[in-house]
Amino acid sequence: MFQVIKNEPTSFIKARKKVKLPKIKSAWEDKNISSIRQDLRKYILENEQDSLCVYCEKKITFDKRYSNIDHFKTRNIFPEKSLVYNNLLVSCNTYNRCSSVKDNKKQSIVKSKDDYLKIVDVVVENPDNCFDYLITGEIVAVNSKGQFTIDTFNLNDSSLIERRLFIFQSLKYFGNLSLAEIYTSFGYEYKSFIKSIYPKLKEL
Ligand SMILES: [Zn+2]
User: Could you tell me which InterPro entries the record lists for this protein (predicted)?
Assistant: First the structure.
């Protein structure tokens, strides 16, 4: 996870102002909003998230098969935040992790407003203070907030660990490059893992 700086686009400001009841759950389905949803996914992904899932950092496109606009604070519990721009983040659609786990009534460990205080909110705080990464590809919590967040989004899903491990093994051959050069060559996918693991690589 990485910190996100939000910058609400004019198109969304205009659209939400046309919605008669913006503080109810179904405001998100209003035609003024649904008609710009794809453009909004593209805008958020490309301008605010380096084209990455905000939770697992997998590279994704704005195609609705691969990504969705996630209400970080879910509309079921926070209907009043349905059209609050800072509550909108783009998540991957991967089965068994990220928004699909958080918002799954049976699977989710997030059940109440208070539970949201236990999760890292990347719009208001830097997640680097809550996590560390291991060269085995696992993300580990530095504090209880980090642990609850890992569990909420299933950030140690086996497919994710495998992917991070693969990147670590590839990075071994590029030990003399700077971090900026690594990002240029590899892209930003799993950028927090790379940032954390790259200095450790040099110590090996
Ligand atoms: Zn994800």
Answer: HNH78-like
Please give the distance, rounded to the nearest whole angstrom, from the Cα atom of residue 128 to the centre of ligand 1: 17
Ligand 1 centroid–CA 96 distance in Å is: 9
Decide: pTM greater than 0.90.
yes
Distance 98 CA to ligand 1 centre (A): 5
Alpha-carbon gap, residue 84 to 22, rounded angstroms: 9
Least confident of 24-28, 64-68, 148-152, 176-180: 176-180
Q: What is the model's pLDDT at position 201?
A: 80
Q: What is the pLDDT of residue 202?
A: 75
Q: What are the φ and ψ backbone dihedral angles of 141, each rounded to 5 degrees?
A: -85, 140
88 C-alpha to center of ligand 1: Å? 14
**C-alpha to C-alpha distance for 43 and 159, rounded to whole angstroms:** 27
CA of 35 to the centre of ligand 1 (A): 24
Residue 89: partners with Cβ closer than 8 Å, 6 or more residues away: 4, 44, 49, 54, 55, 69, 70, 72, 122, 123
Contact 133, 196 (CB under 8 A): yes
11-25, 122-136, 138-152, 174-188 — which is least confidently predicted?
174-188
